[in-house]
Fold this sequence. Notes:
The structure is a homodimer.
Chain A: H1 4-11, H2 15-23, H3 30-43, H4 49-56, E1 61-66, H5 74-90, E2 94-99, H6 103-111, E3 117-120, H7 129-135, E4 140-143, E5 153-157, H8 159-172, E6 177-181, H9 185-189, H10 193-209, E7 212-216, H11 222-234, E8 241-244, H12 250-259, E9 269-275, H13 276-280, E10 287-291, H14 293-309, E11 316-319, E12 323-324
Parallel strand pairs in A: 1-2, 1-3, 3-4, 4-5, 5-11, 6-7, 6-8, 8-9, 9-10
Antiparallel strand pairs in A: 10-12
Helix pairs in contact in A: 1-2, 1-3, 5-14, 8-10, 11-12
Chain B binds a DNA duplex through residues 3-5, 13-20, 22-23, 25-29, 32, 47-48, 50-57.
Amino acid sequence: xxxxxxxxxxxxxxxxxxxYVLSGKRTISPxxxxxVLAAIDKLGYSPHAGARALASNRSNVLGLVVPLREDVNVxxxxxxxxxxxxxxxxxxxxxxxxxxxxLGGIERVTxxxxxxxxxxxxxxxxxxxxxLLAKMNKPAVLIGVPDDAHGxxxxxxxxxxxxxxxxxxxxxxxxxxxALIGSPQASLERHATYADRVRSGFEEASRTAGVxxxxxxxxxxxxxxAEALRELVTGPQGATGLVVxxxxxxxxxxxxxxxxxxRIPEDVSVVAxxxxxxxxxxxxxxxxxxxxxxxxxxxxxxxxMERMHEQRAAEVRLVVPALVQxxxxxxxxxxxxxxxxx
Amino acid sequence: xxxxxxxxxxxxxxxxxxxYVLSGKRTISPxxxxxVLAAIDKLGYSPHAGARALASNRSNVLGLVVPLREDVNVxxxxxxxxxxxxxxxxxxxxxxxxxxxxLGGIERVTxxxxxxxxxxxxxxxxxxxxxLLAKMNKPAVLIGVPDDAHGxxxxxxxxxxxxxxxxxxxxxxxxxxxALIGSPQASLERHATYADRVRSGFEEASRTAGVxxxxxxxxxxxxxxAEALRELVTGPQGATGLVVxxxxxxxxxxxxxxxxxxRIPEDVSVVAxxxxxxxxxxxxxxxxxxxxxxxxxxxxxxxxMERMHEQRAAEVRLVVPALVQxxxxxxxxxxxxxxxxx
DNA sequence: CTGTTAGCGCATTCAC
DNA sequence: GTGAATGCGCTAACAG
Lengths: 342, 342
């Protein structure tokens, strides 16, 4: 409840001096500085965020728009959120949470200067929030790359490339019939950018390699997975290599295949496109392309902060994927290949 | 960028009039009111949150402290978060996110008046944040009941009662050897209040009923589950009835039991203590005590808001549990009971 | 290196 | 039913 004025009086200096020891925006002699700090300590002073926001025109709060849908993987969302909050703190910023569906919220917090900038997750191809966000005069970064970013900056994992290197890995191992088990139907239908890009990357790389391929969505439950596997692996497709991009399915994958009398990797090789922890937390770790959720979240905040002060051109950053071979991929049955060829 | 003054000029009235049409704190004639609203619309005016916070001493922001641990179930956390954000909006409040480990954050946002109140999740028995929070002069509500609430209000699901009715249900069905599969070890060790209470409720009710019982923690992976089941069910304990309080295990439960040649419910009856969606989203729905995460989150916000203006006594609210029998519990093998006896 | 001072945009108390 | 004036607590430009 003590104000800066109280501190100034107690320390026998002027208000601005107190302000400046706090902000460090001009040099203060060691003596006065220590007197001010002593007074601050003595009075238990802490600055009033609202007053500061009014005078400085900066709230030190970032908005984060998170999806709270059923079909997004919550653990990945949490990783993003954790990364964003942690990074924001490094920039002395707090994080205000907005939900996907609260369209008015974006406009409100931005026009009322509740936030200094925004990070928006789970972008879809033609996202109605983007033109809205672009109008508001605050720095914003999209996690995901929409069809038209309206001049906003984007950061994303290069899902298309992730898909392509997964395909190439399988092809190099001699697999000639491969399949993609993708996100739930709902993600595809709303054209979540990651889902679209994984699929197009998969199809493109498969065609280039000249292998037989097919792909399908899959819900996150054992029944749906079993059906997908029946269609793609034991069925007419007869795939021997699988790319799986569906975090929630990973814990079910091994058991479900086992029930169908299929062994990994002897009968079917599997590449996962999944967050690092999902890929390696299994008893037998997956050959996988890791989605570095933490890095992406951190970078998103850094990009917002970069644009906060200096005017800066919009950019699209894609995080380059890397495949790590673990125990779930081997040379195709009947193939002469004993390992990847480069 | 238009200010209230601009609006006042454009409407040919004074600033205070504009303020009052916005707040509704005094009666305004229809004519002036519509002129003001027209001016607001024309100028695209929106109030500056910082200025409002300074003048009114209210930020219209609630703080929410969420756990970002490994051992908490993220989907449940998300449900709470969604409920809190949604409810907060009904009270014209935004939500600022703080993480568990950011101890200084609680103090910062509260002493700087960044937030008007706080909701804190994942309380442990002797939570170091509680004395800290109690000192700050802002309304706060704990989700969970600690040993000493330091005068703060608490809301929680009555986990002890949930556990007791689960036990009684099994006992009524004739089960004489029962077991509890609980939260991961880490939750128990840090004395998360829900984990402690589920266990004590389980043991108390088992003793009262005079049945054999045992309980143990279980990590959220198939191997750990298999080991727990070997110990509790097929091992010397020979439990025929199981209470499971570990959301992340539920998707694995059926498969793991199947691998061990155990059928539900013929060989073992299972009661789940889990969020509603987890309990019913399975192919065969569980007999369960539902954790109403949404209700709890909503109530937490309501309690904070109640304490925002009027001084109000601290209280502890416990949400009463209810068990819904579905297909995973039947009379014990060899029991004469054909159903629950009341 | 330090002090003085004029706002930042809004809420609210008085006066009418 | 309306207006004028003051202050909320802080920042930053200006003056020294």
